[in-house]
Amino acid sequence: MHVGMSVFFQNLEGQRSDREIYAHELSMADLAEPLGFDSVWAAEHHFTDYDMCPSVTQFLTWVAGRTNKVGLGSMVVVLPWTDPVRVAEQFSVLDYVSDGRALLGIGRGLGRVEFEGFRVAMGESRPRFVEYAEALLTALETGTIEYEGKFYQQPRTAIRPAPFKSFRGRTYASAVSPESAEIMARLGVGIMIIAQKPWETALQEIEHYRGVYREVNRAEPPQPLLVSFAAVHESEDGAREMFERYIMDYCSSTLTHYEFANAGLADIPGYEYYGKLAQNIEKHGADRFCRFLAELQVWGTPDQVAEQMIEHQRMLDSSGVIGVFSYGGMPDDVAKANLHLFAEKVLPRLQAHDAQARSA
User: Fold this and answer.
1) CATH code, 227
2) What's the structural domain count of the chain?
3) Pick from 191-195, 202-206, 274-278, 300-304: least confident
4) Is 273 left (phi over 0), alpha (psi -120 to 50) or beta?
5) Which of 297, 336, 357, 360 has the greatest CB tally within 10 Å of its CB?
6) How far apart are CA 239 and CA 42, in angstroms?
7) Does 276 reside within a domain?
8) How confident is the model at residue 358 (pLDDT cuts 50, 70, 90)?
9) DSSP-H helix ranges across 40-124
C-alpha cells in the first residue's frame, strides 16, 4: 500500500503566529522521507487560518530539494483560480527538480471566501474547471498548450521546460459531488477521496466513476487515493482524547470554512449538492455533522489504526492512503508523537499489506 503524509498549515483562531505554524509544519515535512513515507502532499488554500498554503508547488519544490525518493503531491491545485499555463509550467519544473517525482492533484474549489478573493465567479467553477483541466492535461502530455473554449482561450504556446515524461497514472482529482466524479472519469484521471459522506454512498459513486471511465477510456481506471486525518496513541483512551480534541476541532473548522450549513450554496450552479447537506445539518445539528465527519477519519491504538486503514483500502480498492497528522490546534509535541508512533507501528504494516495479501 502506498502511504503518504500531508502537511496542513492550519492556525485555528490565530492562536500562534503564522511563522510558528510554518516552522512546525516544515519540520513535519522534513520527517517524511527519514520515517519511510512514500510521498508528501499539501493542499492549496488562501486568505484564512483554515490552511495557509497558497502555493503548493512552491512548497513541494522546497521538499524536492531536501529529499531523494518521496513523491511530491498537490492535494489539490484549484484550477479555476490559476491560469493553466502557469500550472503546467510549475509542474514541469517540479518534475525536473525532483527527477520525475511530481504527483498532480487538481480540483475545482469549494471555499466561497477564496473565490471572492480571486474575483472568480463560483458558479462558473465546474465548466471552468473542465476547460482548464483539458488544456492542462493535454499540455503536460504534448508540451504545448492550446485551447478555445467559453472560459479559456489560449493560443498555441510551448511549455518550457518541456514535460519529459507522461503524467498519466499520476494525476488525481478530488471529487465530492456525484457530478464531479463523472467529470473526472471523462478526463481520464484518478480520484482522490476526502471522506465527507457515508461509505456506502462513496462506494456507489466510485463504482459509477469506474463505469464511466471504462466506457470513455477503454481501460481500467486508476485506483483511488484516500485522505485520512489520523490520531494514534498507545492507549485507546489517549486516542479517544485526541479524537475529541483535535479531529473534532478540525471537522468544526471544515464546517466553518466551507459553509456546509449555508443553504444558499444550493443557489450557486454546480454546488446544489451542498444545499442538501445544509438541510441535513439544520435538521440534525452542526455538532452531529462534525461528529459524523470525524468518525470517517481514523483514530485509535496503532493496531486499530492499521486495521481501519487496511479495511478502507479493501473497501475502496484504493492504491493507498495519505495521512494528516497535525491539525485542529494540536500542539507541536503531540503532532510529532502522533507522526512518529504512526511511522513506527502502523506504516510498516500498511506498506507490507499488499505483498502479504498477494502471498495469501
Assistant:
1) 3.20.20.30
2) 1
3) 274-278
4) alpha
5) 297
6) 24
7) yes
8) very low
9) 56-64, 84-97, 112-118
